[in-house]
Amino acid sequence: MPHDIAGVAGIIIWTEPDRHEAMARFYRDVIGLHPRSDRDGFINFEWGDFRLTVARHSDVAGPSRDPLRTMVNLAVDDIHSAHERLSAAGVVFYRPPEQEPWGGWIATFGDPDGNTVQLMQLASN
Prior knowledge:
The protein has 2 helices and 8 strands. By secondary structure, the chain is α/β, with parallel strands linked by helices. The strands form 2 sheets. The protein has a 4-stranded mixed sheet with strand order 1-4-3-2. Strands 5-8-7-6 form a 4-stranded mixed sheet, with helices on one face.
């Protein structure tokens, strides 16, 4: 059977129009992601063929009702230095860097809308 799904092209985090700038600032200025595209109501980050987008949507209101429903995992090479940098920038971590049974490391925090975001350092081979 042929596989017509080649992978995940991206994720969109919808936010209400009045919260978009705070969300864009968080991912761009606090987390330190470099925008591929940044315009009114839309900011997009890209790694190869993968895109993370934060965009406003008129049907979205308030913070995330279930912050554990979706997690954005941001890959890092050195979770301890990334944790230190983000903590110094005011990011409050729910879970500091901890090694998982599978060998990788995870640190968890929330964005301004309450969505769960994790730093993920993959296990070394």
